[in-house]
Each structure stands twice: as C-alpha cells, then as structure tokens.
C-alpha cells in the first residue's frame, strides 16, 4: 500500500467530542483534510455552528450535534442518531474535558464529580456505545483519547492544584491501556494523546499567571501551537497505526522528559 493510502481517511466517519473549539477543532481539521466525515459534539450550539462554518470554509464535510457528555442517558441515543444520519462511526476522539483548580481540602465535591463525569464517566459511556454499535461488529475502529501530561505526573507546587483533573486524566491513561488490550484482537486500536500546555479556553486562567513558569520548565521554551497535534491525530486515526495500540503519547515540548 502506498504511504498516502495508509493515511487516507476517505469514507471514514470521525466523532469528536468537544470538537467546537480548541484541540478538538484542530483534530477535526486534520482528519477532515484527509477525507474523513467529521461529526462534532459540544454543549453550545452557537460554538458548533461557528466550527461548522469554519470547517466548511476549508472544504471539510462536517455535521454537528449539541450534547452534554455529562448527561449519560443522552449518549447512546446520540450515537444512534449519528449512525442513522451520517454513517457508522469509524473513529472516536474522546476530547471533551473539564477542569477545576482548588487546594484539595477546599475542593467542592460537586466540582470533583463534574470533572470525573466529563473526563472519565461520560467518556466510558460513549466509548461503550460506539464499540457496541459500530466498531466491534465491523471489526475496525480507532479510539483516540485526549488525556494530558497532567495524567502522567503531579503538579508543580507553584501552580494551582488541580487534583480532580490530574486524577481523571491519569484514569484516562490507564483506561487507554486496559481497553486497548481487551479489543486489540478485534480490529480496534486505542491510544491517547497527552498534550502539554496549549493556549485554549481551558488553560486561559493558568496561562494568565503562570505562562512564564511553564515556558521555563518546557525544554522547547514554547507552548503548543495549532499544528502540533494534527500529525499524531492523523497517524492514530489511520491505517498507518494499525500495529500501535495502548500508547499514551506526550505532545508537550519535552516537559515529561525532564
């Protein structure tokens, strides 16, 4: 097979949670450029509409569905709608996430539950539905979890404590390992991307006061840019990564190496 064919996603449908902005939209651009039909979900319809117009301007075929990943009962019907209206889901990108900053002894329980429900529990329910309905019956699938370097290590004591976020992303890292081994013989690969600091709405508050400290701790001395996740996302979504599964790959400018 020619190398270009290994990366070709023509005829594939990719469901991307939290796809209306930030890293999810960057991944949508990459997969759509290589031929995938892109389906975006997020909570806010206006942001989805803006993303749809943006992708359309790039010549990318896309659909959008307003949905809350924390509403577990809505997720299997969502998958059913996507399958009925767009097509079987070949690629699932679990990108939607939530965070909360507070010292552990002051961390509200409801905030802890919100982070866990989006970052882990909703991801589990959605993944379960896509596996059951689409990937396992057809013997092919790509699951890409967007974890974080925060799931690979603790926090710098000079930064705002984010115990719930770190814990949830650490859970997603091992979710990736455990699920990958379970479905490996059935044509489905499961990998995660672990970004470092990228300028997004979620990181805006942290960067406002801690950007210089982050840059000082990053060997490349810069934040992640708009093209830095695209190549890896395309690799993990395509036939070029058929023998890659269970991996948690940091894209962090070298932070996790020091």
TrEMBL record:
Keyword Glycoprotein appears in the UniProt entry: no
InterPro entries the UniProt entry points to: KR_dom, NAD(P)-bd_dom_sf, Sc_DH/Rdtase_CS, SDR_fam
GO molecular function per UniProt: oxidoreductase activity, acting on the CH-OH group of donors, NAD or NADP as acceptor
Family annotation (Gene3D superfamilies): NAD(P)-binding Rossmann-like Domain
All copies of domain Ketoreductase, residue ranges: 12-196
GO process terms (BP): fatty acid elongation
Sorted UniProt keywords: Plasmid
Name listed for the protein in its UniProt record: Oxidoreductase, short-chain dehydrogenase/reductase family
């Amino acid at each position: 097979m020619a190398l270009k064919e290994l990366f070709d996603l023509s005829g594939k449908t990719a469901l991307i949670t939290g796809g209306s902005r930030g890293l999810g939209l960057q991944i949508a651009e990459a997969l759509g450029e290589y031929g995938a039909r892109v389906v975006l979900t997020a909570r806010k319809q206006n942001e989805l509409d803006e993303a749809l117009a943006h992708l359309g301007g790039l010549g990318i075929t896309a659909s959008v569905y307003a949905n809350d990943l924390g509403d577990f009962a809505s997720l299997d019907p969502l998958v059913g709608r996507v399958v009925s209206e767009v097509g079987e889901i070949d690629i699932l990108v679990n990108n939607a996430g939530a965070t909360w900053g507070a010292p552990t002894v002051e961390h509200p329980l409801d905030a802890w539950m919100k982070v866990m429900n989006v970052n882990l529990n909703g991801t589990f329910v959605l993944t379960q539905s896509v596996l059951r309905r689409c990937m396992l019956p057809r013997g092919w699938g790509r699951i890409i979890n967007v974890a974080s370097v925060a799931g690979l290590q603790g926090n710098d004591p000079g930064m705002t404590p984010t115990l719930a976020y770190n814990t949830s992303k650490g859970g997603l890292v091992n979710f990736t390992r455990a699920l990958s081994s379970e479905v490996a013989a059935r044509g489905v690969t499961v990998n995660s991307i672990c970004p470092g600091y990228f300028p997004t709405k979620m990181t805006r508050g942290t960067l406002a006061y801690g950007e210089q400290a982050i840059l000082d701790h990053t060997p490349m001395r810069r934040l992640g840019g708009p093209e830095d996740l695209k190549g890896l996302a395309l690799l993990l979504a395509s036939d070029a990564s058929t023998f890659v599964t269970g991996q948690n790959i940091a894209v962090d400018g070298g932070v996790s190496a020091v």
